[in-house]
Automatic annotation (TrEMBL):
It comes from the Bacteria. Keywords: Amino-acid biosynthesis, ATP-binding, Cytoplasm, Histidine biosynthesis, Hydrolase, Nucleotide-binding. One of its GO terms (cellular component) is cytoplasm. Pathway: Amino-acid biosynthesis; L-histidine biosynthesis; L-histidine from 5-phospho-alpha-D-ribose 1-diphosphate: step 2/9. This is Phosphoribosyl-ATP pyrophosphatase. InterPro entries: HisE (IPR008179), PRib-ATP_PPHydrolase-like (IPR021130). Belongs to the PRA-PH family. It is an enzyme of class 3 (hydrolase). It is found in: Cytoplasm. It catalyses: 1-(5-phospho-beta-D-ribosyl)-ATP + H2O = 1-(5-phospho-beta-D-ribosyl)-5'-AMP + diphosphate + H(+). The gene is hisE. NCBIfam families: histidine_hisI, PRK00400.1-3, PRK00400.1-5. Signal peptide: none annotated.
Length: 107
C-alpha cells in the first residue's frame, strides 16, 4: 500500500478519536472551515519556503500541505485517488487549450 493510502486510513481511523490524544481528531472536530483554514495557512507556508527557505523546509511544508489536503478530502468524503483521477483525465490536454475552450464556452 502506498504512503498516501496508508495515511488516508490513519486519518479516517483517527477522525473520531479523542481530540486530546490525536491531532487528526482535534482538527477534525473543528470541522471543514478550520481544516480549510489550516490548509490555507500551510499553502502560504509552502510559498514562503519556496521563496526564502531551503529545499528541506519546502519538502516539510509540502508534506504539511498534502497531509491537510488529505484531511479536508476525508472530511468531505473524498479520497486522494479522486484527485489523481481528475489529473489523469486532464492528461494530454494543454492548460492553454483547456482555458481557451472554457473561455469560448463562457461567451
Ligand atoms: N502526517 C501527519 C502530520 N503532518 C503534520 N501534522 C501536524 O500538523 C500540524 C501542522 O501545523 P503547523 O506546522 O502550523 O504547527 P502547529 O504546531 O499546529 O502550529 P500552530 O497552529 O500553533 O501555529 C502540526 O501540529 C503537525 O504535527 C501531522 N499530524 C499527523 N500526521 C499523521 O497522522 C497520524 C495521526 O496523527 P494523530 O492524529 O496526532 O495521532 C500520524 O501518525 C501521522 O502519520
Amino acid at each position: 500500500m502506498n504512503t498516501i493510502k496508508r495515511l488516508e486510513k490513519i486519518v479516517a481511523k483517527r477522525a473520531g478519536d479523542d481530540p486530546k490524544k490525536s491531532y487528526v481528531a482535534k482538527l477534525n472536530a473543528r470541522g471543514v472551515p478550520q481544516i480549510g483554514k489550516k490548509l490555507g495557512e500551510e499553502a502560504v507556508e509552502v510559498v514562503i519556503a519556496a521563496l526564502v527557505e531551503n529545499k528541506k523546509a519546502l519538502i516539510a511544508e509540502s508534506a504539511d500541505l498534502i497531509f491537510h489536503m488529505i484531511m479536508l478530502l476525508e472530511a468531505k468524503g473524498l479520497k486522494f485517488e479522486d484527485v489523481l483521477q481528475e489529473l489523469e483525465r486532464r492528461e494530454g490536454k494543454s492548460g492553454l487549450v483547456e482555458k481557451a475552450e472554457r473561455k469560448a464556452k463562457e461567451k
